[in-house]
Amino acid sequence: MEPLYFDANWKTTTKDNASFYRIMPSKTVGSLVLIEDFYINKTPQFQGYSPQNSESDYVGDVIWFDENGFDSSSYQFYNFSTVSDLVYYYPSGKKFRTIQYKNGRKHGETIIYHEDGSVLMKGKYEYGKPVNGDFEEVVNWDDYRMNRSDSDAGKEEPIKTTEGIIMRDENNSAKKRQIIKKKIFWINSKQLAQEIWYDIINDYTEPFKQINYDKSGKILQTINEKDFVQYGREISNGILYDYYFQNKFAVALKSKTSYKEGQKSGEAVQYFPNGKVLKTEKYLDGELKGDQIEYNADGTVKAKRVYQNGQPFEGNFDEKFASDLVINQNYIKGIKQGEVIVKDESGSSVAKGIYKDGKPFNGSFVIKNENEQNELINVTSYKKNGVQKIFNYYLDDPVKTYTCKDDIKNGETVFYDNREIIGKIDYKNDVPYEGELVEKQKSTIYKKGNITEEIYYRSEYDKKNENNIQKRIYFENGKRTKIINQSFLITSDRQDSYTGIYKNDKPFSGYFATDFNEFNHVDYYENGIIKFQYSNNYLENLEKYQYPNYNIKSTYKDGKIIDGPEYIKLEKQFVTKNWKDGVLQSFDFDLFAMHYFNRFHFELKNNVIEVTVMNSKKTAQIIIEKQGSKNSSKLIIGKNTIIKSSLEIENVVPNTAGNVLYYESDNTVKAQIISVEEENRNSENEHSQELEIIKNLFISSINEDESIEKNFNKIAVTFSEDKKLESLLSRNEETEIVSALWFRKDKKPDTGIAILKSGGNFYDLKSFLDGKALGEKANVDFKNIRKEIEILQKTLEKKMNESFNK
């Protein structure tokens, strides 16, 4: 039977007009047909199975060849047919490969045959995974495609399994090395060109050995485990050999590239299929350096170029640009000079111009502009003139076109989305004048040079869709007059959109939403006065920031919230204060860090400040109570209690239980006694970082001579101001505490610096180490006290280090 002939567009034709032909009759097995197509010169073009009723779909492995008969592209498709064994053939008709399938994937033996019928290699798959033997390819073993007829039939991609895979133990070492090999044979030979050993680890195949051979069987190189990129399949040290393939057999060497420590290093050579050199170039630390020489097929030099630091330096270069453009241009000492021609993949010229001193001088050019966008520009005497085009990946997919005269925008600018016009605007002297200026998620309407409207979109795409509009803002004489907002919903006042009226460019009446990204809310005004705020629990609505629903209402009076939550956004913290009838009831302090979040909840209950930590669910209590004639404050954390009370500074070192902290207050020095009652010294929970924050707050901020309500409000202020909060969290030098003295159980000083009364606003300083006096400074003025304490502290630390190192 005569072959079936096709023209260059794959339309059936006669033999005289044919570019391709198909062997007829096609081999059939069950419901499948094996399609074998050839170029008219008898070079293979395609081989693969299809359902008999749908030859545009594919089943199993398919492969395309270029006009020279070399592999062009190949894919593996699911095999959901009733034919579980597929057979492939050499162009001569001899059996080449057999593959077994189960549930769509390769399962069982795959065998590769020499043309004389002997077995070259055999490998076993289990549920699509190579588990034993030798294979043509192993890295794409799970990369299956589903064809259209399978989707139409309602078939789904099979569930992945882990059968047949070696697992690692808890130390990440293989319990048992399971080896498979990838083998490449020289065509028409039983001689290997390359083989790679892989260890199957979980769902991954990791190479640990590679050998390359020439056609005579001589070993060219051996690469061991240390020469592969760690956790990768690429060569780190050695030579990467690439081949011209036909049916995954090596026909000839295509290139060889040397690598050192994961980077190209030394000479790289490309070859013609006949073995002659096509191109030579050199690399240093992964970058091209020195001469690159390209040859004609007869061995004569076609072109010579020089690279420096990986960049073109001297000669004529073809450089790829965007998707399918190639720029041919000349460099002299690293500077672009002379004619440049840009061609598309068909070879048609799309731009042509002249460079002078590395700059576009006259003509048309494709460049990366200052915003890293692809641009086709038209230039006269170094300046843009005429229509310019900014485009996406493809030249015929513009983002916008604009008109210039002597580098100044004058004339029409047109905006595009998916090759459709979505807006136009005229510029005068580089300023928008009349029309619609389109940006990613915003459009601005101009009339006679003035803004009349701004339109904001949910997405930068589909700007013609009304449902994509978030809000519109209207202007008169450069000032806002009205906003219509569709970006949120107030659950107690449901509307399709919410309107706000401006007066003198400031909110006057209606609804005005914030744009904070992390946390948004809506303010409601009447006659220029803010009345209400609508918000939500932002932790529960992080995923709904695109269209938040607000179900919490706060009421303002005289510009301050008196009922409901008040929100304060700091650099790394977020504070929520809860008010009722103008009285602070509780507040939340949210702390953010890299991969970390925690909330501290403060609440005044029955004359006690109660602090709850969200992550650990631990609770602490702060209490102020009378102790004789003085007040003391307590911090209770679990079974442990910290007690703090004031101490009068005298002219002798105190004899006390507990430790003394000295701090500045009202231009004088005061002191506090800190004692700890620990029933559970080993409790990690009571010494966690989050509870250290509470302890630091208690020691530095609680004033036992003031009411618990004043202290509660004072803490709220501290957590609402960045500077005070940073001082609290970091315990830096800006805190009020200037020194401390630790005491032994017998009430004798142990280590630290004591501050004693001298007279007036002058003080005596004494330092102690291990119960012994170390140094002193008498009669120090208050304004110099920190400086003198720092001198004593340095000496103290030096002695402590010497004692520690003995």
UniProtKB/TrEMBL annotation:
SUPFAM superfamilies the record matches: Histone H3 K4-specific methyltransferase SET7/9 N-terminal domain
Top-level taxon of the source organism: Bacteria
The protein's name: Antitoxin component YwqK of YwqJK toxin-antitoxin module
Species in which this protein is naturally found: Flavobacterium ginsengiterrae
